[in-house]
Amino acid sequence: MANFPSLERETITGFKKSIDSTFREFASNWGEWFTELLSPIHWLLIHFEKLLFATPWYIFLGLISLLLWKATQNWKLIIGFLISFILIGLVGMWDDTMRTLAIVIVSTLVCIVIGIPIGILMAKNNLAHKIILPILDLMQTIPSFVYLIPVVMLFGLGKIPGLIAISVFAIPPVIRFTNIGLREVDKDLKETAQALGLTPFHILRLVELSLARNVILGGINQTIMMALSMVVIASMIGVRGLGAQVLNSIGNGYLGLGVISGLSIVALAIIMDRAIQSHNKRHDKWRENK
Amino acid sequence: MKYIKTMISVMLISLISTFAKAADIKISELNWQSGSLIAYIDSYILKHGYGHDTEIVPGGIDATIESMLATGSPNIVGEMWISSLGDNALSALNDGTLISVTDDNGVIIGAGEGWFIPRDVAEKNGLNTIEDVLARPDLFPHPEDSSKGGIVICPEGWSCKQTNLNLFEAFDMEAKGWKVLEPGSSTGLNAHWEGSVTKGKGAFGYYWTPTSFVGRLDLVGPLSAEVGFAGDDNWTKCIASQTDELCADAQPSQWPSSKTGTIVTPGLDQAVNDYVSARTFEGSVITSMLVWMDANQATAEDSATYFLNTYPEIWSKWVTPEAATKITASLN
Description:
The complex is a heterodimer.
Chain A: H1 9-37, H2 39-54, H3 57-72, H4 75-90, H5 94-124, H6 126-141, H7 144-155, H8 159-183, H9 187-195, H10 200-211, H11 213-229, H12 231-235, H13 242-252, H14 255-289
Helix pairs in contact in A: 1-7, 2-5, 3-4, 4-14, 5-6, 5-8, 5-11, 6-8, 7-8, 8-11, 9-10, 11-14, 13-14
Chain B: H1 2-19, E1 25-30, H2 33-50, E2 54-59, H3 61-71, E3 76-81, H4 87-95, E4 99-100, E5 108-109, E6 112-118, H5 119-125, H6 130-134, E7 149-152, H7 160-170, E8 178-181, H8 186-198, E9 205-209, H9 212-217, E10 219-220, H10 232-239, E11 260-264, H11 270-278, E12 281-282, H12 283-296, H13 300-310, H14 312-315, H15 321-331
Parallel strand pairs in B: 1-2, 1-3, 5-12, 7-8
Antiparallel strand pairs in B: 3-11, 4-11, 6-9, 6-10
Protein backbone atom coordinates (compact mmCIF):
# COMPACT_ATOMS: atom_id res chain seq x y z
CA MET A 1 0.00 0.00 0.00
CA ALA A 2 2.79 2.34 0.99
CA ASN A 3 4.76 1.71 -2.20
CA PHE A 4 4.48 4.20 -5.01
CA PRO A 5 2.97 2.55 -8.08
CA SER A 6 6.09 2.55 -10.25
CA LEU A 7 6.35 1.33 -13.83
CA GLU A 8 7.27 -2.28 -14.55
CA ARG A 9 10.90 -3.02 -13.77
CA GLU A 10 11.41 -4.16 -17.37
CA THR A 11 10.00 -0.89 -18.72
CA ILE A 12 12.37 1.15 -16.57
CA THR A 13 15.36 -1.02 -17.45
CA GLY A 14 14.42 -0.84 -21.12
CA PHE A 15 14.23 2.93 -20.89
CA LYS A 16 17.67 3.17 -19.25
CA LYS A 17 19.14 0.74 -21.79
CA SER A 18 17.71 2.68 -24.70
CA ILE A 19 19.41 5.83 -23.39
CA ASP A 20 22.66 3.85 -23.23
CA SER A 21 22.44 2.47 -26.74
CA THR A 22 21.28 5.77 -28.23
CA PHE A 23 24.23 7.50 -26.67
CA ARG A 24 26.66 4.79 -27.83
CA GLU A 25 25.44 5.23 -31.36
CA PHE A 26 25.75 9.00 -31.06
CA ALA A 27 29.29 8.67 -29.70
CA SER A 28 30.39 6.34 -32.48
CA ASN A 29 28.94 8.62 -35.19
CA TRP A 30 29.84 12.01 -33.79
CA GLY A 31 32.75 11.45 -31.41
CA GLU A 32 35.42 12.19 -34.01
CA TRP A 33 33.54 15.22 -35.29
CA PHE A 34 33.31 16.77 -31.81
CA THR A 35 36.96 16.03 -31.14
CA GLU A 36 37.88 17.82 -34.39
CA LEU A 37 35.64 20.74 -33.48
CA LEU A 38 37.41 21.32 -30.19
CA SER A 39 40.91 20.70 -31.50
CA PRO A 40 41.81 24.45 -31.47
CA ILE A 41 41.06 24.60 -27.74
CA HIS A 42 43.02 21.39 -27.27
CA TRP A 43 45.95 22.97 -29.10
CA LEU A 44 45.69 26.09 -26.90
CA LEU A 45 45.62 23.96 -23.72
CA ILE A 46 48.62 21.87 -24.67
CA HIS A 47 50.72 24.81 -25.78
CA PHE A 48 49.77 27.04 -22.86
CA GLU A 49 50.83 24.23 -20.52
CA LYS A 50 54.06 23.79 -22.46
CA LEU A 51 54.70 27.54 -22.19
CA LEU A 52 54.18 27.45 -18.42
CA PHE A 53 56.54 24.49 -18.18
CA ALA A 54 59.17 26.11 -20.35
CA THR A 55 59.13 29.37 -18.35
CA PRO A 56 61.88 29.31 -15.70
CA TRP A 57 60.37 29.69 -12.24
CA TYR A 58 62.04 33.03 -11.48
CA ILE A 59 60.75 34.55 -14.71
CA PHE A 60 57.27 33.19 -13.92
CA LEU A 61 57.35 34.72 -10.42
CA GLY A 62 58.70 38.03 -11.81
CA LEU A 63 56.13 38.29 -14.62
CA ILE A 64 53.16 37.46 -12.43
CA SER A 65 54.37 39.90 -9.75
CA LEU A 66 54.60 42.62 -12.41
CA LEU A 67 51.13 41.72 -13.70
CA LEU A 68 49.71 41.82 -10.16
CA TRP A 69 51.38 45.18 -9.54
CA LYS A 70 49.93 46.61 -12.77
CA ALA A 71 46.48 45.31 -11.90
CA THR A 72 46.29 46.00 -8.18
CA GLN A 73 49.31 48.01 -6.92
CA ASN A 74 48.88 45.96 -3.77
CA TRP A 75 52.30 44.94 -2.51
CA LYS A 76 50.86 42.76 0.27
CA LEU A 77 49.17 40.61 -2.36
CA ILE A 78 52.44 40.26 -4.28
CA ILE A 79 54.32 39.19 -1.17
CA GLY A 80 51.58 36.68 -0.41
CA PHE A 81 51.81 35.38 -3.96
CA LEU A 82 55.61 35.03 -3.82
CA ILE A 83 55.60 33.27 -0.45
CA SER A 84 52.90 30.79 -1.41
CA PHE A 85 54.43 29.95 -4.79
CA ILE A 86 57.89 29.52 -3.27
CA LEU A 87 56.36 27.16 -0.69
CA ILE A 88 54.53 25.29 -3.46
CA GLY A 89 57.83 24.92 -5.31
CA LEU A 90 59.67 23.79 -2.18
CA VAL A 91 57.21 20.98 -1.46
CA GLY A 92 57.53 19.72 -5.04
CA MET A 93 54.12 20.81 -6.31
CA TRP A 94 55.37 23.29 -8.92
CA ASP A 95 54.75 21.17 -12.02
CA ASP A 96 51.33 20.06 -10.84
CA THR A 97 50.43 23.66 -9.98
CA MET A 98 51.40 24.75 -13.50
CA ARG A 99 49.24 21.98 -14.98
CA THR A 100 46.30 23.05 -12.84
CA LEU A 101 46.88 26.72 -13.61
CA ALA A 102 46.90 25.96 -17.35
CA ILE A 103 43.59 24.13 -17.38
CA VAL A 104 41.89 26.56 -14.98
CA ILE A 105 42.96 29.60 -16.99
CA VAL A 106 41.97 28.12 -20.35
CA SER A 107 38.63 26.91 -18.92
CA THR A 108 37.98 30.38 -17.51
CA LEU A 109 38.77 31.94 -20.90
CA VAL A 110 36.35 29.55 -22.58
CA CYS A 111 33.70 30.42 -19.97
CA ILE A 112 34.23 34.16 -20.55
CA VAL A 113 34.16 33.92 -24.34
CA ILE A 114 30.96 31.87 -24.29
CA GLY A 115 29.42 33.24 -21.09
CA ILE A 116 29.46 37.01 -21.63
CA PRO A 117 27.58 36.92 -24.98
CA ILE A 118 25.00 34.57 -23.43
CA GLY A 119 24.68 36.95 -20.47
CA ILE A 120 24.13 39.88 -22.85
CA LEU A 121 21.49 37.88 -24.72
CA MET A 122 19.73 37.11 -21.43
CA ALA A 123 19.75 40.76 -20.39
CA LYS A 124 18.37 41.93 -23.75
CA ASN A 125 15.79 39.25 -24.38
CA ASN A 126 13.27 38.14 -21.76
CA LEU A 127 12.38 34.93 -23.58
CA ALA A 128 16.05 33.93 -23.66
CA HIS A 129 16.22 34.83 -19.98
CA LYS A 130 13.33 32.49 -19.20
CA ILE A 131 14.82 29.62 -21.18
CA ILE A 132 18.45 29.95 -20.05
CA LEU A 133 17.87 30.42 -16.32
CA PRO A 134 16.66 26.85 -15.59
CA ILE A 135 19.47 25.49 -17.77
CA LEU A 136 21.98 27.31 -15.58
CA ASP A 137 20.32 25.86 -12.47
CA LEU A 138 20.64 22.40 -14.01
CA MET A 139 24.31 22.89 -14.85
CA GLN A 140 25.12 23.96 -11.31
CA THR A 141 23.24 21.19 -9.53
CA ILE A 142 23.51 18.07 -11.70
CA PRO A 143 26.14 15.82 -10.09
CA SER A 144 29.23 16.05 -12.29
CA PHE A 145 29.72 12.28 -12.25
CA VAL A 146 26.62 11.98 -14.41
CA TYR A 147 28.19 13.79 -17.34
CA LEU A 148 31.77 12.57 -16.84
CA ILE A 149 31.01 9.21 -18.49
CA PRO A 150 29.39 10.54 -21.69
CA VAL A 151 32.03 13.26 -22.00
CA VAL A 152 34.87 10.73 -21.83
CA MET A 153 33.08 8.43 -24.26
CA LEU A 154 32.89 11.29 -26.75
CA PHE A 155 36.30 12.86 -26.29
CA GLY A 156 38.49 10.19 -24.70
CA LEU A 157 40.52 10.78 -21.56
CA GLY A 158 42.49 13.89 -20.76
CA LYS A 159 42.38 17.63 -21.03
CA ILE A 160 39.40 18.27 -23.30
CA PRO A 161 36.82 16.26 -21.34
CA GLY A 162 38.32 17.80 -18.19
CA LEU A 163 37.88 21.27 -19.63
CA ILE A 164 34.26 20.51 -20.55
CA ALA A 165 33.49 19.14 -17.09
CA ILE A 166 35.02 22.23 -15.49
CA SER A 167 33.31 24.66 -17.85
CA VAL A 168 29.83 23.18 -17.49
CA PHE A 169 30.07 23.75 -13.75
CA ALA A 170 31.95 27.06 -13.82
CA ILE A 171 30.20 28.99 -16.61
CA PRO A 172 26.90 29.85 -14.83
CA PRO A 173 28.28 32.66 -12.59
CA VAL A 174 29.76 34.64 -15.47
CA ILE A 175 26.45 34.36 -17.36
CA ARG A 176 24.34 35.26 -14.32
CA PHE A 177 26.51 38.20 -13.29
CA THR A 178 26.67 39.62 -16.83
CA ASN A 179 22.90 39.43 -17.01
CA ILE A 180 22.41 41.07 -13.61
CA GLY A 181 25.09 43.69 -14.23
CA LEU A 182 23.50 44.78 -17.50
CA ARG A 183 19.98 44.79 -16.09
CA GLU A 184 21.09 47.05 -13.23
CA VAL A 185 22.46 49.78 -15.50
CA ASP A 186 20.48 53.01 -15.03
CA LYS A 187 17.79 53.37 -17.74
CA ASP A 188 18.29 57.16 -17.84
CA LEU A 189 21.92 56.75 -18.77
CA LYS A 190 20.96 54.46 -21.63
CA GLU A 191 18.38 56.94 -22.84
CA THR A 192 20.87 59.79 -22.67
CA ALA A 193 23.30 57.74 -24.74
CA GLN A 194 20.52 57.04 -27.21
CA ALA A 195 19.67 60.75 -27.41
CA LEU A 196 23.29 61.49 -28.13
CA GLY A 197 22.93 59.30 -31.20
CA LEU A 198 24.95 56.26 -30.15
CA THR A 199 24.21 52.99 -31.94
CA PRO A 200 22.96 50.07 -29.79
CA PHE A 201 26.37 48.43 -30.18
CA HIS A 202 28.13 51.53 -28.88
CA ILE A 203 25.67 51.89 -26.01
CA LEU A 204 26.40 48.29 -25.07
CA ARG A 205 30.14 48.70 -25.29
CA LEU A 206 30.65 52.21 -23.91
CA VAL A 207 27.81 52.57 -21.40
CA GLU A 208 26.36 49.24 -20.32
CA LEU A 209 29.39 46.94 -20.28
CA SER A 210 31.63 49.56 -18.70
CA LEU A 211 29.11 50.30 -15.96
CA ALA A 212 28.50 46.59 -15.37
CA ARG A 213 32.23 45.96 -15.40
CA ASN A 214 32.66 45.31 -11.69
CA VAL A 215 29.67 43.00 -11.48
CA ILE A 216 30.92 41.02 -14.47
CA LEU A 217 34.40 40.79 -12.95
CA GLY A 218 32.73 39.48 -9.79
CA GLY A 219 31.14 36.80 -11.95
CA ILE A 220 34.46 35.94 -13.55
CA ASN A 221 35.95 35.69 -10.08
CA GLN A 222 33.23 33.21 -9.09
CA THR A 223 33.88 31.27 -12.29
CA ILE A 224 37.58 30.95 -11.46
CA MET A 225 36.78 29.74 -7.95
CA MET A 226 34.35 27.14 -9.25
CA ALA A 227 36.83 26.03 -11.90
CA LEU A 228 39.43 25.49 -9.18
CA SER A 229 36.98 23.55 -7.08
CA MET A 230 36.38 21.24 -10.04
CA VAL A 231 40.02 20.23 -10.59
CA VAL A 232 39.65 17.16 -8.36
CA ILE A 233 36.61 15.99 -10.33
CA ALA A 234 38.44 16.69 -13.59
CA SER A 235 41.36 14.58 -12.40
CA MET A 236 38.97 11.63 -12.22
CA ILE A 237 38.99 11.60 -16.01
CA GLY A 238 42.71 11.86 -16.43
CA VAL A 239 43.54 15.56 -16.02
CA ARG A 240 46.93 15.68 -14.34
CA GLY A 241 47.84 18.31 -11.77
CA LEU A 242 46.97 19.13 -8.17
CA GLY A 243 43.60 17.39 -8.47
CA ALA A 244 45.27 14.09 -9.38
CA GLN A 245 47.48 14.44 -6.31
CA VAL A 246 44.41 14.93 -4.10
CA LEU A 247 42.84 11.85 -5.69
CA ASN A 248 46.05 9.89 -5.16
CA SER A 249 46.14 10.89 -1.50
CA ILE A 250 42.51 9.87 -1.01
CA GLY A 251 43.07 6.52 -2.70
CA ASN A 252 46.13 5.69 -0.63
CA GLY A 253 45.30 7.45 2.60
CA TYR A 254 48.29 9.77 2.27
CA LEU A 255 47.25 12.54 4.67
CA GLY A 256 50.38 14.63 4.09
CA LEU A 257 50.09 14.66 0.31
CA GLY A 258 46.40 15.48 0.61
CA VAL A 259 47.07 18.47 2.82
CA ILE A 260 49.90 19.80 0.63
CA SER A 261 48.04 19.45 -2.67
CA GLY A 262 44.79 20.69 -1.14
CA LEU A 263 46.46 23.77 0.30
CA SER A 264 48.14 24.47 -3.05
CA ILE A 265 44.68 24.63 -4.64
CA VAL A 266 43.55 26.96 -1.84
CA ALA A 267 46.60 29.20 -2.39
CA LEU A 268 45.82 29.49 -6.12
CA ALA A 269 42.21 30.34 -5.32
CA ILE A 270 43.00 32.99 -2.70
CA ILE A 271 45.57 34.73 -4.88
CA MET A 272 43.27 34.90 -7.91
CA ASP A 273 40.33 36.02 -5.79
CA ARG A 274 42.25 38.77 -3.98
CA ALA A 275 43.84 39.94 -7.23
CA ILE A 276 40.46 40.49 -8.88
CA GLN A 277 38.92 42.08 -5.77
CA SER A 278 41.83 44.38 -5.24
CA HIS A 279 41.78 45.33 -8.93
CA ASN A 280 38.08 46.15 -8.62
CA LYS A 281 38.64 48.29 -5.55
CA ARG A 282 41.40 50.19 -7.25
CA HIS A 283 39.20 50.77 -10.27
CA ASP A 284 36.38 52.09 -8.06
CA LYS A 285 38.68 54.51 -6.26
CA TRP A 286 40.05 55.72 -9.54
CA ARG A 287 36.54 56.39 -10.79
CA GLU A 288 35.50 58.20 -7.61
CA ASN A 289 38.50 60.48 -7.72
CA LYS A 290 37.83 61.43 -11.28
CA MET B 1 53.82 7.66 6.28
CA LYS B 2 52.78 4.09 6.92
CA TYR B 3 51.35 5.09 10.28
CA ILE B 4 49.33 7.90 8.77
CA LYS B 5 48.13 5.60 6.04
CA THR B 6 46.86 3.12 8.58
CA MET B 7 45.20 5.84 10.60
CA ILE B 8 43.25 7.17 7.63
CA SER B 9 42.23 3.73 6.45
CA VAL B 10 40.95 2.83 9.86
CA MET B 11 39.01 6.06 9.97
CA LEU B 12 37.48 5.36 6.56
CA ILE B 13 36.36 1.80 7.16
CA SER B 14 36.06 1.05 10.82
CA LEU B 15 34.23 4.30 11.52
CA ILE B 16 31.45 3.05 9.27
CA SER B 17 31.41 -0.32 10.97
CA THR B 18 31.64 1.00 14.54
CA PHE B 19 28.80 3.44 14.31
CA ALA B 20 26.48 1.07 12.51
CA LYS B 21 24.59 -1.44 14.63
CA ALA B 22 26.77 -4.23 15.85
CA ALA B 23 26.60 -7.27 13.60
CA ASP B 24 28.45 -10.46 14.45
CA ILE B 25 29.99 -10.87 11.00
CA LYS B 26 31.13 -7.91 8.95
CA ILE B 27 31.67 -8.57 5.26
CA SER B 28 33.79 -6.25 3.17
CA GLU B 29 32.18 -5.13 -0.05
CA LEU B 30 35.08 -4.47 -2.40
CA ASN B 31 34.47 -1.69 -4.84
CA TRP B 32 34.25 -3.62 -8.09
CA GLN B 33 31.43 -5.69 -9.61
CA SER B 34 32.43 -9.24 -8.72
CA GLY B 35 33.85 -8.20 -5.34
CA SER B 36 30.58 -6.57 -4.50
CA LEU B 37 28.48 -9.48 -5.82
CA ILE B 38 30.41 -12.05 -3.76
CA ALA B 39 29.99 -9.91 -0.65
CA TYR B 40 26.21 -9.94 -1.05
CA ILE B 41 26.14 -13.68 -1.80
CA ASP B 42 28.15 -14.32 1.39
CA SER B 43 25.91 -12.04 3.35
CA TYR B 44 22.73 -13.74 2.15
CA ILE B 45 24.02 -17.26 2.73
CA LEU B 46 25.43 -16.53 6.19
CA LYS B 47 22.29 -14.66 7.21
CA HIS B 48 19.65 -17.07 5.90
CA GLY B 49 21.59 -20.34 5.92
CA TYR B 50 23.55 -20.02 9.15
CA GLY B 51 21.55 -17.44 11.10
CA HIS B 52 24.32 -14.88 11.47
CA ASP B 53 23.69 -11.18 11.72
CA THR B 54 25.75 -9.84 8.84
CA GLU B 55 26.69 -6.37 7.77
CA ILE B 56 28.23 -5.10 4.54
CA VAL B 57 31.18 -2.69 4.89
CA PRO B 58 32.26 -0.97 1.67
CA GLY B 59 35.95 -0.25 0.98
CA GLY B 60 38.95 -0.62 -1.32
CA ILE B 61 41.71 -3.25 -1.09
CA ASP B 62 44.32 -1.31 0.86
CA ALA B 63 41.98 0.43 3.28
CA THR B 64 40.11 -2.81 4.00
CA ILE B 65 43.27 -4.77 4.78
CA GLU B 66 44.65 -1.99 6.98
CA SER B 67 41.38 -1.89 8.86
CA MET B 68 41.35 -5.68 9.32
CA LEU B 69 44.91 -5.53 10.67
CA ALA B 70 44.25 -2.61 12.97
CA THR B 71 40.78 -3.42 14.31
CA GLY B 72 39.97 -7.01 13.26
CA SER B 73 37.01 -5.80 11.24
CA PRO B 74 35.60 -6.47 8.60
CA ASN B 75 35.81 -10.24 9.14
CA ILE B 76 35.51 -11.55 5.58
CA VAL B 77 36.88 -10.21 2.31
CA GLY B 78 35.47 -12.38 -0.45
CA GLU B 79 37.58 -11.65 -3.49
CA MET B 80 41.00 -10.35 -2.47
CA TRP B 81 43.62 -10.23 -5.20
CA ILE B 82 46.64 -11.74 -3.48
CA SER B 83 49.08 -10.22 -6.01
CA SER B 84 48.06 -6.73 -5.01
CA LEU B 85 48.59 -7.19 -1.28
CA GLY B 86 51.34 -5.20 0.39
CA ASP B 87 54.15 -6.55 2.56
CA ASN B 88 52.39 -6.03 5.87
CA ALA B 89 49.30 -7.89 4.64
CA LEU B 90 51.46 -10.78 3.38
CA SER B 91 53.30 -11.03 6.68
CA ALA B 92 49.97 -10.97 8.51
CA LEU B 93 48.91 -13.93 6.36
CA ASN B 94 52.13 -15.73 7.30
CA ASP B 95 51.85 -15.21 11.05
CA GLY B 96 48.13 -15.94 11.24
CA THR B 97 46.82 -12.46 12.01
CA LEU B 98 44.79 -12.91 8.83
CA ILE B 99 43.88 -16.21 7.21
CA SER B 100 43.53 -16.99 3.52
CA VAL B 101 40.98 -19.81 3.31
CA THR B 102 40.94 -20.44 -0.44
CA ASP B 103 42.94 -23.15 -2.21
CA ASP B 104 45.48 -22.44 -4.96
CA ASN B 105 42.92 -22.17 -7.76
CA GLY B 106 41.50 -19.06 -6.21
CA VAL B 107 37.98 -17.82 -5.56
CA ILE B 108 37.39 -17.16 -9.24
CA ILE B 109 39.13 -19.74 -11.33
CA GLY B 110 40.94 -18.05 -14.23
CA ALA B 111 40.83 -14.50 -12.92
CA GLY B 112 43.54 -12.16 -14.07
CA GLU B 113 44.60 -8.57 -14.52
CA GLY B 114 46.89 -7.26 -17.20
CA TRP B 115 46.94 -5.58 -20.58
CA PHE B 116 44.04 -5.92 -23.01
CA ILE B 117 43.18 -4.88 -26.55
CA PRO B 118 39.89 -5.06 -28.51
CA ARG B 119 39.52 -8.39 -30.31
CA ASP B 120 38.87 -6.91 -33.76
CA VAL B 121 42.07 -4.82 -33.59
CA ALA B 122 44.00 -7.90 -32.45
CA GLU B 123 42.69 -10.09 -35.24
CA LYS B 124 42.93 -7.53 -38.05
CA ASN B 125 46.58 -6.80 -37.29
CA GLY B 126 47.68 -10.18 -35.99
CA LEU B 127 48.58 -8.92 -32.53
CA ASN B 128 48.95 -11.81 -30.11
CA THR B 129 51.53 -10.78 -27.55
CA ILE B 130 52.57 -7.67 -25.66
CA GLU B 131 55.59 -7.37 -27.97
CA ASP B 132 53.33 -7.41 -31.07
CA VAL B 133 51.29 -4.55 -29.63
CA LEU B 134 54.32 -2.53 -28.53
CA ALA B 135 55.63 -2.57 -32.10
CA ARG B 136 52.47 -0.80 -33.34
CA PRO B 137 51.94 2.43 -31.32
CA ASP B 138 50.29 3.92 -34.45
CA LEU B 139 47.22 1.69 -33.91
CA PHE B 140 46.58 3.12 -30.44
CA PRO B 141 46.98 6.92 -30.71
CA HIS B 142 47.29 8.88 -27.48
CA PRO B 143 44.52 11.52 -27.23
CA GLU B 144 46.93 14.27 -26.15
CA ASP B 145 49.60 13.52 -28.73
CA SER B 146 48.51 11.42 -31.68
CA SER B 147 52.09 10.78 -32.81
CA LYS B 148 52.50 8.56 -29.75
CA GLY B 149 50.73 5.38 -28.72
CA GLY B 150 48.70 5.59 -25.53
CA ILE B 151 48.61 2.88 -22.88
CA VAL B 152 45.89 3.31 -20.30
CA ILE B 153 47.11 2.45 -16.80
CA CYS B 154 45.41 2.13 -13.40
CA PRO B 155 43.45 4.94 -11.72
CA GLU B 156 44.96 7.10 -9.00
CA GLY B 157 45.27 5.29 -5.70
CA TRP B 158 45.18 1.75 -7.15
CA SER B 159 48.20 -0.31 -6.20
CA CYS B 160 48.53 -1.54 -9.80
CA LYS B 161 49.30 1.98 -11.04
CA GLN B 162 52.94 1.64 -10.02
CA THR B 163 53.09 -1.85 -11.53
CA ASN B 164 52.01 -0.40 -14.87
CA LEU B 165 54.59 2.39 -14.63
CA ASN B 166 57.35 -0.08 -13.78
CA LEU B 167 56.43 -2.26 -16.75
CA PHE B 168 56.31 0.84 -18.96
CA GLU B 169 59.95 1.44 -18.04
CA ALA B 170 60.92 -2.22 -18.20
CA PHE B 171 59.62 -2.59 -21.77
CA ASP B 172 61.33 0.71 -22.63
CA MET B 173 58.03 1.88 -24.05
CA GLU B 174 58.89 5.56 -24.28
CA ALA B 175 61.62 4.80 -26.82
CA LYS B 176 59.13 2.65 -28.73
CA GLY B 177 56.79 5.63 -29.16
CA TRP B 178 54.41 5.15 -26.24
CA LYS B 179 53.05 7.52 -23.65
CA VAL B 180 51.15 6.76 -20.45
CA LEU B 181 47.43 7.60 -20.48
CA GLU B 182 46.17 8.25 -16.95
CA PRO B 183 42.48 7.45 -16.49
CA GLY B 184 42.25 9.19 -13.08
CA SER B 185 39.45 7.02 -11.73
CA SER B 186 37.61 3.81 -12.48
CA THR B 187 34.93 5.97 -14.11
CA GLY B 188 37.58 7.35 -16.44
CA LEU B 189 39.03 3.91 -17.14
CA ASN B 190 35.68 2.38 -18.07
CA ALA B 191 34.56 5.35 -20.12
CA HIS B 192 37.86 5.29 -21.99
CA TRP B 193 37.50 1.62 -22.99
CA GLU B 194 33.81 2.01 -23.74
CA GLY B 195 34.36 5.15 -25.84
CA SER B 196 37.32 3.75 -27.77
CA VAL B 197 35.60 0.48 -28.63
CA THR B 198 32.33 2.24 -29.52
CA LYS B 199 34.17 4.59 -31.85
CA GLY B 200 36.10 1.66 -33.36
CA LYS B 201 39.41 3.09 -32.24
CA GLY B 202 42.32 1.11 -30.91
CA ALA B 203 42.80 1.01 -27.15
CA PHE B 204 45.49 -0.76 -25.19
CA GLY B 205 46.10 -1.07 -21.51
CA TYR B 206 44.97 -2.19 -18.13
CA TYR B 207 41.83 -4.13 -17.33
CA TRP B 208 40.97 -7.34 -15.59
CA THR B 209 38.80 -10.38 -15.97
CA PRO B 210 36.27 -11.70 -15.19
CA THR B 211 34.20 -8.61 -15.85
CA SER B 212 31.05 -8.09 -17.86
CA PHE B 213 32.97 -5.25 -19.43
CA VAL B 214 35.56 -7.50 -21.05
CA GLY B 215 32.77 -9.78 -22.28
CA ARG B 216 30.58 -6.99 -23.60
CA LEU B 217 33.34 -4.96 -25.28
CA ASP B 218 35.02 -8.14 -26.53
CA LEU B 219 38.50 -7.40 -25.26
CA VAL B 220 41.29 -9.97 -25.39
CA GLY B 221 43.74 -10.38 -22.56
CA PRO B 222 45.54 -10.44 -20.30
CA LEU B 223 48.06 -10.55 -23.13
CA SER B 224 51.07 -12.79 -22.66
CA ALA B 225 54.61 -11.72 -23.48
CA GLU B 226 57.28 -13.49 -25.51
CA VAL B 227 59.70 -12.78 -22.66
CA GLY B 228 57.39 -14.68 -20.34
CA PHE B 229 57.07 -14.00 -16.63
CA ALA B 230 59.99 -12.25 -14.93
CA GLY B 231 59.73 -14.49 -11.91
CA ASP B 232 58.12 -14.10 -8.50
CA ASP B 233 61.12 -12.40 -7.05
CA ASN B 234 61.37 -9.58 -9.57
CA TRP B 235 57.59 -9.27 -9.73
CA THR B 236 56.80 -8.95 -6.03
CA LYS B 237 59.92 -7.15 -4.88
CA CYS B 238 60.32 -4.81 -7.82
CA ILE B 239 57.65 -4.55 -10.54
CA ALA B 240 54.68 -4.78 -8.20
CA SER B 241 56.34 -3.49 -5.05
CA GLN B 242 54.14 -1.10 -3.11
CA THR B 243 56.31 1.98 -3.21
CA ASP B 244 55.88 5.36 -4.80
CA GLU B 245 59.16 5.22 -6.67
CA LEU B 246 59.96 3.45 -9.89
CA CYS B 247 61.95 0.27 -9.43
CA ALA B 248 65.18 0.59 -11.42
CA ASP B 249 65.63 -3.15 -11.73
CA ALA B 250 62.19 -3.94 -13.24
CA GLN B 251 62.38 -6.63 -15.94
CA PRO B 252 59.99 -6.86 -18.90
CA SER B 253 57.36 -9.41 -18.00
CA GLN B 254 53.85 -10.57 -18.69
CA TRP B 255 51.34 -10.18 -15.87
CA PRO B 256 51.17 -13.26 -13.66
CA SER B 257 47.81 -15.00 -13.53
CA SER B 258 46.25 -13.51 -10.45
CA LYS B 259 45.42 -15.53 -7.42
CA THR B 260 42.22 -14.46 -5.75
CA GLY B 261 41.55 -15.54 -2.23
CA THR B 262 39.02 -15.08 0.51
CA ILE B 263 40.71 -13.60 3.56
CA VAL B 264 39.16 -13.79 7.00
CA THR B 265 40.05 -12.69 10.50
CA PRO B 266 40.70 -15.50 13.01
CA GLY B 267 37.97 -16.69 15.36
CA LEU B 268 35.06 -17.25 12.98
CA ASP B 269 32.81 -20.31 13.45
CA GLN B 270 34.03 -23.52 11.85
CA ALA B 271 30.82 -23.63 9.79
CA VAL B 272 31.50 -20.16 8.40
CA ASN B 273 35.11 -21.08 7.62
CA ASP B 274 33.98 -24.26 5.84
CA TYR B 275 31.55 -22.27 3.75
CA VAL B 276 33.96 -19.50 2.68
CA SER B 277 36.73 -21.94 1.81
CA ALA B 278 34.37 -24.02 -0.34
CA ARG B 279 32.90 -20.98 -2.10
CA THR B 280 34.72 -20.80 -5.44
CA PHE B 281 33.41 -19.87 -8.88
CA GLU B 282 34.26 -20.91 -12.41
CA GLY B 283 35.34 -17.78 -14.30
CA SER B 284 32.55 -18.33 -16.86
CA VAL B 285 29.87 -18.34 -14.14
CA ILE B 286 31.04 -15.03 -12.74
CA THR B 287 31.32 -13.55 -16.22
CA SER B 288 27.77 -14.54 -17.10
CA MET B 289 26.57 -13.16 -13.75
CA LEU B 290 28.34 -9.89 -14.45
CA VAL B 291 26.94 -9.64 -17.97
CA TRP B 292 23.48 -10.17 -16.48
CA MET B 293 24.11 -7.47 -13.87
CA ASP B 294 25.20 -5.08 -16.55
CA ALA B 295 22.39 -5.85 -18.96
CA ASN B 296 19.81 -5.36 -16.23
CA GLN B 297 21.73 -2.61 -14.43
CA ALA B 298 21.02 -4.65 -11.31
CA THR B 299 22.38 -3.86 -7.86
CA ALA B 300 24.81 -6.31 -6.27
CA GLU B 301 22.11 -7.25 -3.76
CA ASP B 302 19.52 -8.08 -6.44
CA SER B 303 22.17 -9.97 -8.37
CA ALA B 304 23.06 -12.11 -5.36
CA THR B 305 19.41 -13.15 -5.09
CA TYR B 306 19.33 -13.83 -8.84
CA PHE B 307 22.46 -15.97 -8.52
CA LEU B 308 21.02 -18.01 -5.66
CA ASN B 309 17.80 -18.56 -7.60
CA THR B 310 19.52 -19.45 -10.87
CA TYR B 311 22.49 -21.58 -9.81
CA PRO B 312 21.34 -23.78 -6.88
CA GLU B 313 23.54 -26.62 -8.18
CA ILE B 314 26.60 -24.41 -7.64
CA TRP B 315 25.97 -22.93 -4.22
CA SER B 316 24.43 -26.04 -2.69
CA LYS B 317 27.88 -27.65 -2.86
CA TRP B 318 29.31 -24.92 -0.67
CA VAL B 319 26.90 -25.25 2.26
CA THR B 320 25.63 -27.90 4.63
CA PRO B 321 22.36 -29.62 3.60
CA GLU B 322 20.50 -27.92 6.49
CA ALA B 323 21.73 -24.50 5.41
CA ALA B 324 20.78 -25.27 1.81
CA THR B 325 17.22 -26.08 2.88
CA LYS B 326 16.94 -22.86 4.88
CA ILE B 327 18.32 -20.77 2.01
CA THR B 328 15.97 -22.36 -0.50
CA ALA B 329 13.05 -21.73 1.83
CA SER B 330 14.01 -18.08 2.31
CA LEU B 331 14.28 -17.54 -1.44
CA ASN B 332 10.66 -18.55 -2.05
